[in-house]
């Protein structure tokens, strides 16, 4: 095996079996990009909160970006430590909080509307939560990596 293959991006993926750790890594990377967008521009935050875009301001966007970065950090750590029970459960919590936030902003507060800005976060939160709850027993019985 040559040195180029040893340092390929493939070797950086989580080594635990299954696709859930890779999904968590993917969602984490996307969340980091979203966090940076929240600091750079209001455009994408206003797309998520298209029900009342006039309520989006620099402070709310940066706060959302910070919150999203924290969720990304937890999900990243869980991707590489999937068999650690407390980390796994905290990661589940990030999807519960994200789901609650987006659904409440949509259905209760009316700041978000179902469309291109909200669909992705709703899919990520519901997929992550369902998948993690469904696979919890499997991943927590794996030996620590």
From TrEMBL:
Any single GO CC term annotated in Swiss-Prot or TrEMBL for this entry: endoplasmic reticulum membrane
Key words, A-Z: Endoplasmic reticulum, Lipid biosynthesis, Lipid metabolism, Membrane, Steroid biosynthesis, Steroid metabolism, Sterol biosynthesis, Sterol metabolism, Transmembrane, Transmembrane helix
Protein localization: Endoplasmic reticulum membrane
Main location: endoplasmic reticulum
Membrane topology of the entry: Multi-pass membrane protein
Bilayer-spanning residue ranges: 86-103, 115-134
The keyword Transmembrane belongs to this UniProt entry's keyword annotation: yes
BP term (GO), one: sterol biosynthetic process
Signal peptide: none
Similarity comment: Belongs to the ERG28 family.
The protein's name in its UniProt record: Ergosterol biosynthesis protein
Naturally occurring in which organism (per UniProt): Arthrobotrys oligospora (strain ATCC 24927 / CBS 115.81 / DSM 1491) (Nematode-trapping fungus)
């Amino acid at each position: 095996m040559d040195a180029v293959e040893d340092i390929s991006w493939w070797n950086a993926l989580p080594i635990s079996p299954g696709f859930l750790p890779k999904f968590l890594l993917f969602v984490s990377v996307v969340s980091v990009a979203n966090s940076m967008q929240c600091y750079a521009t209001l455009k994408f935050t206003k797309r998520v909160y298209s029900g009342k875009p006039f309520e989006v301001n620099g402070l709310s966007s940066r706060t959302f970006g910070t919150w999203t970065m924290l969720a990304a950090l937890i999900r990243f750590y869980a991707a590489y430590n999937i068999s650690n029970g407390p980390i796994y459960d905290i990661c589940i919590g990030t999807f519960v909080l994200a789901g609650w936030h987006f659904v409440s902003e949509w259905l209760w507060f009316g700041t978000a509307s179902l469309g291109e800005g909200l669909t992705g976060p709703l899919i990520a939160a519901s997929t992550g939560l369902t998948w993690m709850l469904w696979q919890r027993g499997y991943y927590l019985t794996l030996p620590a990596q």
